Amino acid sequence: ASPVLVAILAAGAAPQAPEPPPAPALDAARLSALKARPVGPAIFGGRVSDIALDPADPATFYVGFGRGGLMKTTDNGGTFSAVFERQKVVSIGAVAVAPSDPRVVWVGTGEANDRNSSGWGDGVYRSTDGGETWEYVGLEHSRAIARIVVHPNDPATAWVAAVGDLWGPRPGRGLFKTADGGKSWSLVLAAPAPYRDRVGCGDVAVDPTDPSVLYAALYARRRTPWSFVWGADATGGEDVGGIFKSTDGGATWRKLTKGLPGRTGRIGLAVHAANPRIVYAIVQSDEGGQDPIDAIRSRSGGVFRSEDGGESWTRTSPLNPRPFYFSQIRVDPADPDRVYVLGFALHVSDDGGRTWREDLFKKVHPDAHALVVDPTRPSRLLLGTDGGVYQSFDGGKTWAHLNRVATGEFYRVSVDLSEPYRICGGLQDNMSWVGPSRTWTKDGILNQHWTNLGGGDGFQCVFDPEDPDVLYAESQEGEIFRMNLRTGERKVQRPEPAEGRPRFRFHWASPLVASRHKPGVMYLAGNVVFRLTERGEKWKAISPDLSARDPERTTAAGSGAETYGVVYTLAESPVRAGLLWAGTDDGRLWMTEDEGGTWKDLTPSLPKEARGEWIARIEPGASDPQVAYLAVAAYRSGNDAPLVWRTDDGGRHWKNIASDLPAHGPVHVVREDPARPGLLYAGTEFGLFTSLDAGGHWVPLGGLPTVAVHDLVVHPREGDLVIATHGRSIYVLDDLTPLRGLTPEVAREPVHLFPPRPAFGRYLLPGFADWEGAAVYRGENPPEGAILDVWVREFTGDPVKLAIKNPDGQPVAELTLPATPGIVRASWNLRPTKETMVSYGGLGERLVRPGDYEVTLTSGKITRKQKLQVRIAEGIETR
User: Model-level pTM greater than 0.70?
Assistant: First the structure.
């Protein structure tokens, strides 16, 4: 519990007044009424890391998402329930159901794909009731788990392949075994010293007829913000990876080499269920040279098959698409010659891996990471991609997209001033989308209410201030484009240098911001800052190269995700025109007060923990141009701590405001409320937090699952908080009025009625919700009518009642609220309540007329009053 109120009460105490009773600590329970609502969309899913089928009931299966937690279905994918919501981490690497007892489910946290945006975990969890409850069972230093194999006859015995930390040398790598349900663990396979902190276990497979026979793959990897190395390049040239076999349950191992290449990287394994002498491997090898990103055939690696339990291998094909991202192979349990390789597409072979086709990958999102072949019906396939989960019942000829769960990985989000306002955001490998913050239908917010703007990976969006049908969106490496929703016209507008001039560098997620002071002006940043005008048609560089300009760190090839030495965060002061802040991924901070005429290097004044680290966000003060907030994400260099500071002198000095944020949760974004200086919102790797005292103390907010929050926007008119999560799509926390109004004086009151914002009424369209079935995702609308918030300092036994009168002083509604300590939220649908109507009067479902209403709170002998403005849609006949 965070003792915020203790501090703010002390700050505002009047000297003549008697000492108030001790104030309760402000914790998550006292803010639980401020629950964010999910708005979706679920058109796409986030990156799927693993799928596990219930062996006793094929209609039940589990889907693990790299950033979105674990979902379970018991109706063949018709509906899903989230079953891993409140654990310390949400990134899933592996999930396994015990073959002998499907109630036992194992989850390994931390995504094992080597992407820059992969999440990390804290070990292994186990459930004995089908995911209803979970027990943490250890391996806290593993960081990323690639596979879990459970003993076919003993649900308490399992082998866990821990590939380890993506970003640097750490312990916790290798193949671990437990025989007592996770109470104790043994490291049964690891690289020799001194490579053990760099080499992990990338996969493990078991002979289902003889669980004493195991195959495992060792693999070294290392990312930096500007590079990625693997295999021998990550171990100083020593080739310590490869495929290993045990015939005694993991007690001893020997390396398999006959027919296999050296200099191996990531390896995937598959053992045929009916004939376990047949083993397949997809092997990354750098013998003969490394392969570019778009190559799907390896010079020396590829698909290998053994027919003698791994003693000898035959290379059947060079197929091996983008190994660090895929390296997954599966074999049909009924047909040893039908093999699947996962990559940009789904590759299938019917001749043991000699020839391949891709005709089974139609109308499916690219980038396949997980595949299950139903052993009871091999024509049924479950496929996990960067776009979610798909199911086929005809061997992959046709697919159904199970888009019932919102697991989108959003990077950035923006809002406009429509009524209701729209939300636009971009996300991992799923383009940019625009949709409503609410709808006027009982259906809620459906997938079809969202419009695709195109692109690849999506990032920042900007609404045109003059034309509501025009948006500016961004794909990777600064590829901005203007999109006209009215005509469908799309035009790419990224600044490009003239021939012979130095190229511009743009980050994977380049900042694009609209000016708050000059409508129509936008700022885009790469290694320099650009000013865009005339609907993006014209551009001008307004800064020099703001990076550290390290030539050894700005030359990486590939997708652009390793582009380094660029501005990652850019912001304009809301209170002073021309004041811009820029922070780079290589630890430099700059400010200009004349829109780029001159730039001041603030890097020397940065706190020591921030120097050279990735500056995740700079947030200018909402009311004071000298104030700014700085968030630094240093986990790429081994520091998971929340690093966030405040300056009140233009960046010359910084105060640490991380205080009681979770110790291992890096901060991605910090925002100051525009209506109350010092009211802050922080999006971290593990959830959303708020501070009422400029970072003195932090409290969890919104009731979100444990998910990364990458962006936050406070709507300038409605005062809603729009939350972009990287794993569970978008949430909206409606009406921040009670947080804005919870001053020290208010906190001392026994009860307090906050001034409600204006309420709008209209009738909802009937929609089709009652007949459409359950297999539909529905984002939540806000409550109809008025939101009414009350502060209750402590429980006294007296009920809290609200009485509402119309402009003529006539009672129209009575509400009773729970007297729960903290903020209590209620809603009134702008219709008379039964206490103010006679039976069968016929007017109870009619909306009240517009005007100024009076809301009176009573609790014991205490009375409080506020005005409520009611607006009703034009043309509605009111009561």
Answer: yes
